[in-house]
Design goal:
The complex is a heterotrimer. In chain A, 73% of the residues lie in helices and 0% in strands. Chain A is mostly helical. Chain B has 15 helices and 17 strands. In chain B, the strands form 5 sheets. A 5-stranded mixed sheet of chain B has the order 13-12-14-11-15. The longest helix of chain B is centred in the N-terminal third of the chain and has 20 residues. By secondary structure, chain C is mostly helical. In chain C, helix 8 crosses helix 9. Classes of the chains: A mainly alpha, B alpha+beta, C mainly alpha. At the B-C interface, helix 1, helix 6 and helix 12 of B face helix 2, helix 3, helix 5, helix 9 and helix 11 of C.
């Protein structure tokens, strides 16, 4: 008993080691992981590591306004006299929260509907679900998110709702593709013959085969969701001031170009870095899982 | 490799193109170009905002013309009389005034314009409800009021006279106005039916409006015309209103001398940058517009007088007028100091001891945590955020929690229509409709305006209403002004608002123009500072 | 014949999608909180004026009746009255659409052309320093949002180097050419006005490139991957063994085949380009439909919102049909009408 457990443990350990090896072969994946971890750390401990944690909110100090980068304010201050670096640290909190919440809202329904439609390919359920996704993907996602946001009161919460609303079809379609190709596979038919319930087949037989692409897409999507969130804030339909949101900071800063360039440029770079990090990580995860599946 | 050769050629072509493009330059005639915030409604029965009023001043005529002193001089009307009860005004029109199509302007056109305005009901129509025109002769018209109104003449500057034939020839049927179809609304969006010194040539929505000089303008040839109405010798031949306030565009146009006067919506930082340009100055003038924090007097916790006084004592006015809106003087009482009828009543200053004292007397003392103050500022005016955050920081010091929310203008208007939806505080710029204290008193504190965006206070005080109504109906100017003074004192006691500052309206302008407003000759009626006939281009 | 059947099927399907989209967007625009009629008429208008406007816009009717009116008008090419400009939305769009089209086409061409060229170069010199730097650059291109590019370009080329104009389609001093196509570059060429053409091109450059970079990078990466993959195929090895010159292999056999995935993804990239145009037009003050759309959204101009989104839907569908046709031309094995894997 004890032995079996430790054997299982060591097998898992072996597998994890193998996965890590595959992942770490590419230095870029490591770079992605480090970037994401670093951003996560910065976001989690923003109140402790920011040079001026008070500046995250509605702080004003007009005598320190619009100061260029210096030792006192590494990335300068905005027109309210707030430290840009501190606000970027806090901005990452909102970005990550946005990404996590949207994915949490989007992945379960998207995947479930995709599985269902794929497994029931050719039935009315398939038609209904997939035709609805057709409508959602008929316009650029950003445009639809903007439209939804524009009718709601601008806030972080509503921005997340809007992005979620237009994001699920993409998961649905991805899973649909896999599920519909697997439904005639031997192991699915075997389960059907033994009288397994439909839910069992969907979630126990088919779903595990979708893990690799789902996880890869989730990691990549973290970046894109953050990006769309900041785009919404950029036009004023997302997070509202004085919330330290990267998109809002960028939009506000753009008004003061080129004289106070630092107010816009550093948040812009911050957005770039977070998206880059999640993309590198996503690519790493794909390399890692793809080889494993084959 | 074929592809790389294509790439090379494309790159070379682009480089060449860019090099050549920098050689070309254009030439311009005497032009006055001003930037404004869109949209522009050029129909006098629809528009009433800054850019619309400016367009009307240039394209249309009215019976009387406003002077910088806040008075009027004869324009289309040569002279007028008023009946002893103050209800019937008779206007005698000048003969020989021609519209842009050459037709003569008669009393018929004046009556038509008034009827059209009040029927459509938009724009400045609210100034003319209850006024009936009676055509007495081709050049004589009566205006019959339903109740006496002291400042009637200055309001008449907003009655712009349209060419009846021109409008009727361009109506679209069917429309919502029965036999009048759409009353020419579609046509007047991009054209005019006026008689003013300029006529509309082209309007491109959200881009620009183009106007050109009307050569047959009557004020140049008819006798006994006030100097104010005459087109100055070096006035612009062409008038272009850019419909954008986008800072980068404004800065670029200004630097290239392709914009003579900027809009007022640039940030302080942007104005500083414009001011630093060679040949560009920034003019600032007080127009009677003031900036208020309107405090809801019927919603907790700001329904408590002591609580409101605590806010008033705790706020840092000095930082606002020194650092956020430098040049704008702090208000003394509810009415702008430059507005005729203003009285120096009282001025708050930051005094935390007094603020705490008031706060202790308020019924919310000890439970301030449960009563956060909701503060809305208008998204379209970025500088308001600075005031909002300053307020938040100030109130934190005396233990009052403030929730600052950025709200788009249209939503602010909507929430202020209902007492429940109105927030504790809204920060708004308010301009008088006519240059007199009575306008502000009525639109800010009378019950009739409680549902509009001009009042968030919800005072609903019948005693105050009666005082305001009585003052406005008083025909004698001095008597009227005395009454205004009493009302201002009464409002101060109620402490319904934080009176922040009289707005210094800023415009960057090219020093090669001779612009009366920049020299301190400011017209209190909105739009008339940009009457192009008085602005000379000396380039 | 097969082409006709394909087009007919796609058309029928597109109509279904557009109808669905119109219902979705219509609902979004109408459930909007607030009273659009009151907003349009302004705070000082008396209630009867607002009431009349409401009736004029059919806003007093139940939702399905409103939709019926909307659909009836939309089929005639009318999208109702804009609350903001007070004109027919179709007229506004007619004014703003060409600018967006010009930007999108310019950007799309840059995206496709340079993307493929970079991909080919990268594959040709695989694992050299050229390839590596292209790969790093395109990765940055993929992950950087176009509005960030726009802001950085604005600062660098617009202000620091002062090379390119930062706003609009033409410099103010230059009279616009007589509108024929609505595309300023084309119109000025038609009019033989070389100054205007170059000026328009200069204005296009920053927004166009900022928009194109994301898709361009994606195209380059996919082209490279696809060529590298196909290079290992048997028939290429066969050709190599027969001493067919490398460049002939490259251009004649390999390229056409390898472009299939690139072209397939072009449709999606073009869509995201159109989406990003919303922000980029705003940043460069480009007087196009996207800026109009953003404005409509910020001012809750319901008819304009619906119209702009529907037009994007139509463009997207047309682009996808074109992509399908090109793909089938590139690869005769792909039969038209077969469902495209997404």
């Amino acid at each position: 008993m004890e032995l079996a457990r430790s054997a299982a443990l060591s097998r898992r350990w072996e597998k994890a080691k193998r996965l890590w090896y595959k992942f770490s072969r590419n230095p870029l994946s490591i770079l992605g992981l480090v970037t994401v971890l670093l951003i996560g750390f910065v976001a989690a401990f923003a109140p402790f590591i920011s040079p001026y944690p008070k500046h995250a909110g509605g702080y004003v100090n007009f005598s320190e306004a619009s100061k260029p980068p210096s030792l006192k304010h590494l990335l300068g201050t905005d027109v309210f006299g707030r430290d840009v670096l501190s606000r970027i640290f806090f901005g990452y909190r909102f970005s990550l929260m946005m990404g996590v919440v949207v994915l949490a809202l989007v992945v379960p329904p998207g995947v479930t509907l995709g599985l269902l439609a794929g497994y029931l390919k050719g039935t009315w359920a398939d038609t209904l679900i997939m035709r609805i996704t057709d409508i959602f993907v008929a316009v650029p996602p950003l445009v639809l998110a903007l439209a939804v946001c524009s009718v709601l009161t601008p806030s972080v919460f509503n921005a997340m709702m809007a992005v979620s609303l237009m994001w699920w079809p993409w998961y649905c379609r991805m899973v649909y593709g896999i599920a519909s190709s697997l439904r005639n596979e031997f192991f699915v038919q075997a389960a059907e013959v033994t009288g397994a319930s439909r839910w069992h087949i969907l979630f126990r037989e088919i779903l595990p085969n979708c893990y690799a692409p789902i996880f890869t897409k989730m990691s990549l999507d973290m970046g894109w969701v953050i990006l769309i969130g900041s785009a919404l804030s950029f036009v004023g339909l997302g997070a509202q001031p004085p919330t330290p949101d990267l998109g809002t900071m960028l939009a506000d800063g753009a008004k003061y170009m080129p004289d106070q360039w630092w107010i816009a440029v550093f948040p812009a770079l911050a957005i770039m870095i977070v998206v880059l990090g999640f993309n590198l990580l996503g690519d790493g995860i794909r390399d890692m899982l793809e080889v494993e599946e084959v | 490799m074929k592809w790389s050769r294509v790439l090379l050629i494309v790159m070379l072509a682009l480089g060449l193109a860019l090099g050549l493009a920098s050689l070309g330059t254009g030439e311009a005639k005497r032009a006055l170009r001003v930037s404004f915030a869109p949209p522009l409604y050029t129909d006098p029965a629809v528009g009433s905002d800054f850019v619309a009023s400016t367009t009307f001043a240039n394209v249309y005529d009215s019976l009387v013309y406003p002077t910088p002193a806040g008075d009027v001089v004869p324009a289309v009307a040569e002279r007028w009389t008023v009946s002893p009860d103050g209800l019937t005004w008779t206007f005698y029109l000048r003969q020989g005034i021609k519209f842009h199509d050459g037709k003569e302007l008669t009393a018929e056109d004046v009556a038509f314009s008034l009827e059209r305005l009040t029927t459509i009901g938009e724009g400045y129509a609210y100034l003319f409800q209850g006024i009936t025109p009676q055509v007495v002769g081709p050049y004589t018209i009566n205006m019959v009021l339903s109740k006496p109104f002291g400042p009637f003449l200055i309001n008449l500057t907003r009655l712009y006279i349209l060419n009846k034939d021109c409008v009727m020839a361009n109506i679209k049927t069917p429309g919502p106005y029965g036999a009048f179809g759409d009353y020419g609304k579609a046509y007047l969006l991009t054209a005019d039916c006026g008689s003013g010194p300029y006529k509309i040539k082209e309007v491109r929505a959200e881009e620009y409006a183009l106007m050109e000089r009307f050569e047959g303008y009557w004020a140049q040839t008819l006798p006994n015309v006030d100097e104010l109405l005459k087109v100055k010798p070096k006035a612009a031949d062409e008038l272009k209103f850019y419909l954008t306030t986008e800072p980068v565009t404004i800065r670029t146009l200004m630097a290239r001398q392709e914009l003579e006067i900027s809009d007022q919506w640039q940030s302080l930082e942007a104005f500083q940058a414009l001011d630093a340009m060679e040949g560009v100055d920034v003019a600032g003038f007080l127009t009677g517009t003031s900036f208020y924090l309107m405090v809801h007097t019927r919603k907790a916790p700001t329904d408590d007088l002591h609580f409101r006084k605590a806010l008033a004592w705790a706020f840092d006015y000095e930082t606002v007028v020194k650092q956020i809106f430098p040049g704008s003087p702090q208000m003394i009482g509810p009415v702008a100091a430059t507005l005729p009828g203003h009285k120096d009543v009282f001025q708050y200053h930051r005094d935390l001891a007094k603020a705490r004292e008031e706060l202790q007397q308020s019924k919310y003392f000890g439970q301030l945590d449960q009563y956060p103050v909701e503060y809305h500022w208008i998204a379209e005016v970025p500088d308001e955020e600075k005031v909002a955050l300053l307020f938040l920081a100030n109130m934190e010091e005396i233990g009052i929690k403030v929730k600052v929310v950025k709200v788009p203008w249209l939503s602010v208007v909507e929430e202020m229509a209902s007492m429940e939806a109105s927030p504790n505080i809204v920060s708004v710029f308010v301009a008088p409709h006519y240059p007199e204290a009575g306008s502000i008193l009525k639109s800010r504190y009378h019950s009739e305006s409680a549902k509009t965006w001009e009042q968030n206070e919800w005072l609903l005080d019948p005693e105050l209403d009666a005082m305001i109504d009585d003052a406005i109906a008083t025909i004698d100017r001095e008597e009227r002004f005395a009454k205004y003074g009493a009302i201002q004192e009464r409002i101060m006691e109620l402490c319904p608002s934080l009176f922040l500052f009289d707005h210094l309206e800023r415009h960057a302008y090219q020093t090669y123009i001779d612009w009366p407003a920049a020299k301190g000759i400011v017209n209190p009626v909105m739009g008339y500072d940009f009457d192009a006939r008085q602005i000379q281009i000396l380039k | 014949m097969r082409l006709l059947i394909f087009l007919a099927r796609r058309l029928g399907y597109s109509i279904f999608v557009l109808l669905g989209l119109s219902i979705l967007v219509f609902l979004i625009a109408r459930v909007m909180p607030g009273d659009p009629a009151r907003m349009a008429m302004g705070p000082r208008a008396p209630e009867w004026v607002v009431e009349r406007f409401r009736a004029e816009m059919h806003l007093d009717k139940p939702l399905y009746v409103q939709y019926y009116y909307w659909l009836r008008d939309a089929l005639r090419g009318k999208f109702g009255l804009s609350i903001f400009t007070r004109r027919d939305v179709s007229r506004d769009i007619g004014e703003f659409f060409p600018a967006t089209m010009e930007l999108a086409l310019f950007s799309g061409i840059i995206m496709g052309l340079f993307g493929i060229v970079l991909g080919v170069i990268s594959a040709r010199y695989a694992n050299s320093w050229v390839d590596n730097s292209v790969r790093v650059l395109t990765y940055m291109g993929v992950v950087t949002p176009s509005f960030v590019f726009a802001i950085l370009f604005l600062l660098l080329f617009g202000y620091v180097l002062n090379l390119l104009p930062t706003t609009g389609r033409l410099s103010p001093g230059i009279p616009p050419p007589p509108p024929r196509t609505g595309l300023v570059t084309v119109d000025s060429l038609l009019a033989g006005n070389f100054t205007a053409f170059l000026d328009a091109l200069k204005h296009l450059l920053m927004p166009g490139v900022a928009l194109a970079l994301g898709g361009l990078s994606q195209e380059a990466r996919i082209t490279r991957a696809s060529i590298t993959e196909n290079l290992q195929r048997d028939f290429i090895a066969l050709e190599r063994s027969q001493a067919i010159p490398e460049r002939v292999i490259m251009s004649k056999y390999l390229l056409k085949l390898s472009l299939i995935p690139t072209v397939s993804i072009l449709g999606l990239d073009f869509a995201s380009l159109l989406g990003n145009a919303f922000l980029v037009e705003m940043i460069f003050n480009w007087p196009g439909m996207s800026r109009y759309g953003i404005h409509a959204m910020l001012t809750k101009d319901l008819n304009a919102i619906v119209a702009v989104i529907m037009i994007f839907g139509v463009i997207f569908i047309i682009v996808n049909i074109i992509v399908d046709l090109v793909v089938s031309w590139l690869d005769p094995r792909i039969r038209l009408g077969a469902e495209r894997a997404k």
